[in-house]
């Protein structure tokens, strides 16, 4: 299943949002619409997940039984699931502009909207469709395109036309006309398409993203060297950006997200192109460099539960700031520890308990003898060691997986063992007794996230739940229970869901965290193309 396999259907809660506009402060602003979590459509979301089990074997690797493929080029876009996204805005495509509601997604890089040539996919009949015949600036491309998301695939073909974002008009922009949207997600979704704000490195078809100003090429243009531009499309985009700078509409190649988490207010938030609005945050902005272009990826330090380090990211983890999801996704090992601390009930794993029953004391003894933690599971015989981390001994399961069947039990045994090592290490650092450690690890087995990624908590116990903190750029960013728990419904029928889901991506790409709207709502997030950095500050 996908990294965002926790699916929640949504309905529109605010329509009276100001249209995108440029202002005399040098910014272009995009008003965002805010959705609420809706209990009624969660069944459709569950059906989508079951459909995914059958149709997406490559995504099925993503769960407790195994880990995402070991390829360094793991396509995280394929894990995305937009059923849980809350914030949308409006753009125009063509001349005159045809309006579409899109997710502004920093976790992908393509723009796509439904096509009038989408005849056989039911979701297309429920959304605005692009009609090339109505646009005087349309240019035919015709190259086929397909994007696989965790929540379903879309396919179609590339076209070129003007795209209006606020008062910025990007000419000859490549985008995908979607002619096939087979997913339940796109049927019940309240958005028409997706506008990617990631880097070109992850763009399908190598299409230039709508808002893409290469930090190397932009200064070349400003110094009157337009021939240095690599493509006519990029040149035109630089020209647009240059004109906006010249006119005082945009100051710099930066955009920032302010997500309004106040449920009593209708305004969903705002994307500001051209800089940072000081009214959107408090205090200082903490910046960290982009470590790998593609996603807005950066290095992150340890995760703390109630002020105590989990130790999992003591040597560092990677993280992505992703506006395309509401959730916080991270290594299942840590998510399980968080679930235990907040009292979330998941699905008990028999494999996890079997590992503890059979190997728990041996693992403990090896750690007390100061064995290399990453080699412990190979020493007990459930993993092999590839020089960096444990690898399942179920080699046959890879062949089985390619044949379309499930991976073997060895995958889960190896994963369970590796988690047990980390859990025991954490408790040994706290000088817990061996009996207490084994009891604790068995309890964690009960707290493993369910296959749906959904873990329920008691709404009446939020006040007793711990602060969960993330270390970024040497600064600790806290999230309170009211901030990381999602409330579905109202009154006595309300349900509270943990905002944390498991995501297991192995080195060298992982361990990886995805910081979605739960985090970005509390911390105003700045995406700086010019200086290749991401910034966070307390949201105002």
What does this structure look like?
- There is one protein chain.
- The chain is of the alpha+beta class and 540 residues long.
- Helices cover 24% and strands 29% of the residues.
- The protein is built from 13 helices and 29 strands.
- The strands form five sheets. A six-stranded mixed beta barrel has the order 4-5-10-6-9-8. It has a five-stranded mixed sheet with strand order 14-17-27-18-26.
- α6 (332-342) packs across α11, α7 packs across α10 (409-429) and α7 (350-368) packs antiparallel against α11.
- It starts with 9 loop residues before the first strand and ends with a strand.
Q: Compute the number of strand runs.
A: 29
Largest sheet: 6 strands, mixed, barrel
Instruction: Give the uncertain stretches in residue-range form.
Output: 1-21, 39-76, 214-249, 391-410
- Please tally the helical runs, counting DSSP H or I stretches of 4 or more residues: 13
List the helices and strands and how they pair.
Layout (H helix, E strand, L loop, with lengths): L9 E3 L8 E2 L5 E10 L4 H14 L1 H4 L26 E7 L4 E8 L5 E4 L24 E11 L2 E14 L2 E13 L3 H5 L4 E4 L20 H6 L9 H15 L7 E6 L9 E5 L7 E9 L7 E4 L2 E3 L2 E2 L7 E5 L6 E3 L1 H11 L7 H19 L7 H5 L2 E3 L4 E3 L2 H8 L6 H21 L4 H13 L9 E2 L10 E5 L2 E5 L1 H4 E4 L6 E4 L1 E3 L9 E4 L1 H6 E6 L4 E7 L1
Helix pairs in contact: 6-11, 7-10, 7-11, 10-11
